[in-house]
Design a protein that fits this description.
447 residues; alpha/beta; Four Helix Bundle (Hemerythrin (Met), subunit A); Rossmann fold; 434 Repressor (Amino-terminal Domain); 3 domains; 8-stranded mixed β-sheet; 8 strands; 55% helix; 9% strand; elongated; binds guanosine-5'-diphosphate; binds magnesium ion
Length: 447
């Protein structure tokens, strides 16, 4: 798993938010501290960390919640947005014009993962129906030729190299011509990049680029460098306007968060990330999705939309009333309908990372009894709906007759009602217990 430690820390910070009965300033402060600790441990630059968490702090308790959005959703969204923003926000895919030769050149210091990336990308695009070929212009490192040749063979893509040619520019030119003659659409050019310092690297890049005129130059940086990766990215960004970046070795690196955020801060788009030594261990980089995954909530967008759709509009008056335990059958029906629209409640809770134990029959009830309950309630008077306690045996008989159901069905409805009322009352008490409570939607155990 990519950035496992950071993901775990962020996820447990959010779990605290879900577990808390009430969301107040104190809780947000705690959340912000947890996030700061997690990011600093992932080697994210301290100024960046402050910017991210200041934003969270500022917006979390922002009074104006959009309609139908609960405080918890809002905060998760703020955290998520803030992280995405600092990872570059937008996904920028590699553009390939099919039917034409697209030359993409890899640069980067030795050992950063260029050759591995060329092999991975060749396979990635070949699989997606793009005719791909690779060129080895690394005439410096021993074994570079064999390394790339082998990778190319693994994916059955054409390879060009010449161990006797010592001039990298000539190699690149020849290789390009050969690939064009073969009708290759994506030509991946691997270079030596032997220089340890950025200035030398840039000079070499410019020499080769001048000769073969690549459509895109990709800097490959080692994610284990942490925020130091940003230094390379800055030099690169200043030297070319056709550049993008691949951050490698994010598997198992404790500093990957630092590398990603530092590179994103240079505004050079991160197009892929390397997530392992294997030939398939590469993925297109999408900041929003990546942030969601880090938070352990890859599905959160869908969930938020779902919850929003399912929100039953409830005014503050009735919210307060229900919290006090003044809960009518009509209220219950609204709650049940809300649950039904959200799908299996257990699944929803799981997506949120919630461990709230619901009485089993609530889940069953939503699926099976909703319709019957509605029919029964249609035979009740306004007075009975508002205060079901008055429904004793003779009324039960009447309602069952009127609705064409059994008396036991009516009793079942009343039993469920009592249970739900008790649960909400207990829930209301735990919420009132803390200072600065934010009134929320009094759904079942709040989302
Ligand atoms: N764990 C891990 N190792 C990688 C990744 N990318 C490259 N490597 C390893 O890093 C080392 C250097 O890679 P190489 O492609 O030869 O770097 P180059 O000198 O820039 O061409 C090799 O041992 C690769 O297996 C990655 O995403 N994850
Ligand atoms: Mg190499």
């Amino acid at each position: 798993m990519v950035l496992e430690a950071l993901g775990k820390a962020l996820n447990s910070a959010l779990k605290k938010l879900f577990g808390a009965g009430v969301i107040d300033e104190e809780l947000v402060k705690e959340l912000v501290k947890d996030i700061q600790r997690a990011l600093l441990q992932a080697d994210v630059d301290v100024n960046l960390v402050m910017q991210i968490t200041d934003r969270v702090q500022k917006l979390a308790l922002d009074e104006s919640l959009p309609r139908g959005v609960s405080r918890r959703e809002h905060i998760v969204k703020v955290v998520w947005d803030s992280l995405s923003y600092f990872l570059g926000e937008k996904a920028v895919p590699l553009t390939i014009n099919p039917g034409k030769p697209n030359l993409v050149m890899m640069v980067g210091i030795q050992g950063s993962g260029k050759t591995t990336c060329v092999g991975k990308l060749a396979r990635y695009y070949q699989k997606r129906g793009i005719k791909t070929g690779v060129i080895c212009a690394d005439n410096f490192r021993l074994g570079a030729y064999a390394q790339l040749k082998q990778l190319a063979e693994k994916s059955s893509v054409p390879f060009y190299g010449d161990e006797t040619e010592k001039n990298a520019v000539k190699l690149a030119k020849k290789g390009y011509q050969e690939m064009v003659s073969k009708g290759i659409e994506l030509i991946l050019l691997d270079t030596a990049g032997r220089h340890r310092e950025e200035a030398g690297l840039i000079k070499e890049m410019q020499e080769i680029a001048k000769a073969v005129n690549p459509q895109e130059i990709i800097l490959v940086v080692d994610g284990t460098l942490g925020q130091q990766a940003g230094v390379q990215a800055v030099a690169f960004k200043n030297a070319t306007d056709i550049g993008s970046i691949i951050v490698t070795k994010l598997d198992g690196s404790a500093k990957g968060g630092g590398a990603l955020s530092a590179v994103a801060a240079t505004q050079a788009p991160i197009k892929f990330i390397g997530t392992g030594e294997g030939i398939d261990a590469i993925e297109p980089f999408n900041p929003t999705k990546f942030a969601g995954r880090l938070l352990g909530m890859s599905d959160i967008k869908g969930l938020i939309e779902k919850v929003r759709e399912a929100q039953v509009e409830i005014d503050e008056e009735s919210a307060k009333r229900i919290m006090k335990g003044q809960f009518s059958l009509t209220d219950m029906m609204a709650q049940l309908k809300q649950l039904k629209k959200m799908g299996p409640i257990g699944k929803v809770m799981e997506m949120l990372g919630l461990k709230y134990k619901l009485p089993e029959n609530v889940a069953e009830l939503q699926e099976e009894n909703l319709k019957r309950f509605e029919v029964i309630m249609n035979s009740m008077t306004r007075e009975e709906l508002d205060d079901p306690r008055i429904i004793k045996s003779s009324r039960i008989r009447r309602v069952a007759m009127g609705s064409g159901t059994r008396q036991s069905d009516v009793k079942e409805l009343l039993k469920q009602y009592e249970q739900m009322k008790k649960m909400l009352k207990a829930f209301g008490k735990s919420r009132r217990g803390r200072r600065g409570a934010v009134p929320g939607v009094p759904g079942l155990p709040g989302i």
